[in-house]
Amino acid sequence: MEQFDGLRPARLSVGIISAGRVGTALGYALERAEHVVVACSAISEPSRLRAHRRLPDTAILPVDEVAGRAELLLLTVPDAELAALVAGLAATGAVRPGTIVVHTSGANGVGILAPLTAQGCIPLAIHPAMTFTGSDEDIARLPDTCFGVTAADEVGYAIGQSLVLEIGGEPFRVREDARTQYHAALAHASNHLVTLVLDAVDVLRASLRGQELLGQELVGDEPGGLAERVVAPLARAALENALQRGQSALTGPVARGDAAAVAAHLSALEELDPQLAQAYRANSMRTAQRAHAPGDVFEVLAETSQR
Question: Where would I find the Putative oxidoreductase/dehydrogenase Rossmann-like domain in this sequence (predicted)?
Answer without folding.
Answer: 5-128
